Amino acid sequence: MSILVIAEHDNSSLKQATLNVVAAAKAIGGDIDVLVAGENVGAVAEAAAKAEGVNKVLVADNAAYGHFLAENLSELVAEVGKGYSHILTSAGTTGKDFMPRVAALLDVAQVSDIIRVESEDTFVRPIYAGNAIATVKASDSIKVVTVRPTAFDPVAAEGGSASVEQLDVVKDAGLSSFVGEEKAQSDRPDLASAGIVISGGRGMQNGDNFKMLEQVADLLGAAVGASRAAVDAGFVPNDMQVGQTGKIVAPQLYVAVGISGAIQHLAGMSDSKVIVAINKDEEAPIFQVADYGLVADLFEAVPQLEEELKKVL
Amino acid sequence: MKVLVAVKRVIDYNVKVRVKPDNTGVDLANVKMAMNPFCEIAVEEAVRLKEKGVASEIVVVSIGPKASQEQIRTALALGADRGIHIETDEEVQSLEAAKLLKAVVEKEEPKLVILGKQSIDSDNNQTGQMLAALTGMGQGTFASEVVVDGDKVNVTREVDGGLMTVALNLPAVVTTDLRLNEPRYASLPNIMKAKKKPLDSMSPADLGVDVAARLSTLKVEAPAARQAGIKVADVAELVDKLKNEAKVI
Question: Measured between CB atoms, which of A70, A107, A182 is closest to B139?
Answer without folding.
Answer: A70
